[in-house]
Amino acid sequence: MKRLRLKMGRDVWRMRWRALAIVFTLASGIAIDSGMSSAVASLFWTRDSVFAELGFADLEVRFVPDDADNLPDVSDVPGVMRVERRLLFPATVPDERGRPMMAVMTFLETPTPAIDSFQFLEGRPFERDEEDAVVIEQSLARSHGYHVGDDIVVQVGSQAYPSRIVGVVLTPEYFVSSSNPDYFVPERGSLGVVFGNIRRSSEALGFTMVNNLLVRFDPSADAKAVTQALLARTHKLNLELVIPKQRHFSHKFIQTDLQALRFFVPAMVLVLLALASVITFLNFNRLVAGERREIGALRALGYGRRSLVLSYAETGAVLGLVGSLVGIAASFLFFRDVFARMCADAIGIPLVRTSFDGIAIVRGLLFGPAVAAVSAAVPVALLLRRPTREILRSPRAEGYFSGRTREDPAPTGRRLPVGYRYALRGLLRQRARTIATLGSMALALGVAVGFRMSVGSIDETLSTRYARDRWRYAVDFLYPVFPEDVAGITRLPGVEGVQAYLRRYVELENGARREGATIVGIDLASPLASWPLAAGRVPSVASDDEVALGLEVAKRLGARPGDTIQLRALERARPVRVVGLLSDAVLDVALVPLPMAREICELPEKASGVFLQAAAPTPELAGGLHASPVVGRVTEKNELVGQIRRLLGVMFVVLDIAAGVSIFVAGVFVLSSINLSVLENEGEFATLRAIGYGAGPMARIVLTEAFACAVGAAILSAPAAVLVSAYLNHRMSLAWFRVDNFFFPSEEARVLLPYLALIPVAASPGLRHIMRLDISRVVRARMAD
Amino acid sequence: MAVLSSFEAGLGTRGGGRSEDALVRLDHVSKRYQDGQIATEVLTDVHMQIERGSFTVVLGVSGSGKTTLLNLVAGLDVPSSGEVFVDGRALSALSERARTEFRRTAVGIVFQYYNLLPTLTALENIEAALEITPLPAGEIRDRSWRSLEAVGLGSKASRFPSQLSGGEQQRVAIARALAKEPALIVADEPTGNLDEQTGRGVMTLLQDLRRRHRATLVVATHNPVMTSFADRVVRIEHGRMVDVPILAEAGR
Lengths: 785, 252
Description:
The structure holds 2 protein chains of 2 kinds.
Chain A: H1 2-14, H2 16-53, E1 59-67, E2 80-94, E3 100-108, E4 119-123, E5 133-137, H3 138-144, E6 151-156, E7 159-170, E8 192-197, H4 198-205, E9 209-217, H5 223-233, E10 239-244, H6 249-290, H7 292-301, H8 305-347, H9 358-383, H10 388-393, H11 418-429, H12 431-467, E11 473-481, H13 487-490, E12 495-510, E13 513-522, E14 533-536, E15 546-550, H14 551-557, E16 564-569, E17 572-582, E18 589-593, H15 594-601, E19 607-614, H16 619-627, E20 631-636, H17 637-647, H18 649-680, H19 682-690, H20 695-735, H21 745-757, H22 759-771, H23 775-784
Parallel strand pairs in A: 3-8, 5-7, 13-18, 15-17
Antiparallel strand pairs in A: 1-9, 1-10, 2-3, 2-9, 4-7, 5-8, 6-7, 11-19, 11-20, 12-13, 12-16, 12-19, 14-17, 15-18, 16-17
Helix pairs in contact in A: 1-2, 1-8, 2-6, 2-8, 2-9, 2-18, 6-9, 6-12, 6-18, 8-9, 8-18, 11-20, 12-17, 12-18, 12-20, 12-21, 18-22, 19-23, 20-22
Chain B: H1 6-9, E1 22-35, E2 38-51, E3 55-59, H2 66-74, E4 81-86, E5 89-90, H3 96-105, E6 107-110, H4 122-131, H5 137-150, H6 166-179, E7 184-188, H7 196-213, E8 216-221, E9 232-237, E10 240-241
Parallel strand pairs in B: 3-8, 3-9, 6-7, 7-8
Antiparallel strand pairs in B: 1-2, 1-4, 4-5, 9-10
Helix pairs in contact in B: 4-5, 4-6, 5-6, 6-7
């Protein structure tokens, strides 16, 4: 076996460029798998480590404000490590354009809390005796341009708190760029968070008022038991909300987004690895075809089938291992960090701490050698099924899967110049191989286009979805208001119709599962808004116990139409019956009639926003809306797709990356195919050179064959793209919201045109090889062979 | 036929004069191949000329250097030292492009293994050689037909190489070489892959065509029987031209 290994090693060196193509193809698939998986692991690690370092609260309890002296002491509850008290108020602060935006004013008893503590990005904590100093959460700085030293006026109801910013902080409570879940589209940076000195409120009131407890448990404590004990101790408080860490928005938002990544990445990686397998198999098949006489000679010498198959398998495994190692190295050196950064930016995570996914790495280490070993062994094994004398005498070009050499009795391309005829017949000469090559290229291109089409389908679905709605503006108020408070808005010129809605954060419970959601109360008979259904129906207009759930939240709850679940608001539970599932782009919705929502949220007659119908957007109307003191945010329907797209940002990042990698793999495959074809026809090319073919005619022949193959692959890629896009859209529809299939020829062109333009570049190594041939040697050697 | 002595064969060689009728002249030509550390001298100080219109056989066993000599004459390779002149032009002074041009127009090559393109018909193989010349399409077609008919294969124009016998394939290869009406035809072991009878047929054809087209023909062979067709025989051994005992009427 030693000599055999030596032979195989030299063979690999001889076909080193081919070997490199195999290595790179395998490496690209493994790099994506390992890189993406490790990026996701990094983001989870970032979240978990930051939360641990900054003491993310294990439990948050919100209650109606009370004197701090009246609060029961819960610090001695078994399992409680630490307790901190705070006073939170909804507020407004001016955004960068001076318009009021929704905020939360948090008064702290200590400048440096130990629970939900601060990592200072700029500045310092306020001093205990600094009453007008505040620190701001980092998204106010990032999204609205505030910095240390700036003044900021925090409006809490009718009370204004002019303040001075002394610090900008990162805190686990708002780790993901803070967004207002009460807004129609909870865009990042739509919620400002300000931390100030509780003495400012205490001095005004004459006592310390608090309405929020943060609790940290002992690491070894039973969280459920401690929570129960705490709630028992605080039963006299008027509780509004009890939020364990796992249900906190900051914790869950990342979880949801990253789960979405895990949803798509396997599909993408599967295709890339399948491609890598096909390319590897084709390359090895050709190698075996070229060596069949050597293999026959070895058999004639007495080498057994097993040892020959093993030697090729071993060589394949080594190449595959190199591919795995290169892929894993690339994932650590580049892909993981790039993916993690791109996904973090899309989700709104401000920093990334790297980690790795051990399972993905092991998977990568096993995949490369396994695929390459099998790809190398199978052609040899099949060849060795023939009698040795047949192997020795078989013609050079015939590999086992290459099909017979075909001479067409009705020659192709009769009308074309002979050079072109020769090039095209080169493709037809081994049809099985040509089909395999075309199929692989088409698959790679089709996947790339399919991913792009899926992005386009999502965009188009969103545009089409809201085109059906009659509203022009969705106006979210800073806080729930009575209709008379917004009469001025509804009488603005151009307004043709108004529909109030109430949106609040609630919790839904189904058995042991508990999930946060946004209750949306609206007149369901109103024609201004529509609600696309995935199943069932919308609640009846007059019902008080029916709900239609968003698909995503229903899935997390395990709830289906017909089920009865608990809807929790203000720490009171109410049974409701699920009558339908919504397939809408705005997620986590619990749709109910407006009166029911008002009752649940104890906000009779109030609305948190209105849909406005208007013939056309006008500056007067927009200006009038923004000038209103109660308006927090105005969403114009035309801008909606962009906003939702930003919210889905991470999905588009994944899809774009997938498209890019597919194109790369297609490029590698084109390069290796063209140049392999040149090598295999070396003798004929040398003959042509010998009879006077120069660079120009040779280039025409090589490029004709390459372009014919490329155009064939491009045509075949269209159905592949459609299938891939439809598959991804179907998966998205099952998990998030219904995505309709739209097919965009422009996406095909965007991928295919650059690919076709690269063909001459891909062909140039082969052409160079032809022009540098030792004609006399090759003519004799190859044609004799 | 006269098999000349090395001296006579080397007319115009070591110190001899140059014949003005010489189409090809090799001036102290040597060829070495370097493969890593190993250098192999394949031709050593070959000095000879080939008369215009003659039929010269270069006789030598396998590995003697005859193929290398033909490659140099055909412009497929350049000497390591010395010079090859064809029709007064020094081939090694030409650029690669110019040598390609030379092969395209001035020399026809016949290979031992025919070297036909398997996916082109007999006629198309000949057309392929003419397509890269400035000839118009109609002329290309006509010449190709004439060449094919000249070798007796007009009825097999649409056959692919795999549908032809060895002898027929070689005749197509000859037709391809002749189609461009070159001044020089070089054939490397044209009968090496054929049985003796077929080989004689090919050599007869070559002789006949050479006479009709007034081309200069140089054939390399290891088979002394084939020397009977030539006007001159040059023998090569271990890369050197050697004294040849005159073999009157040999092989007839």
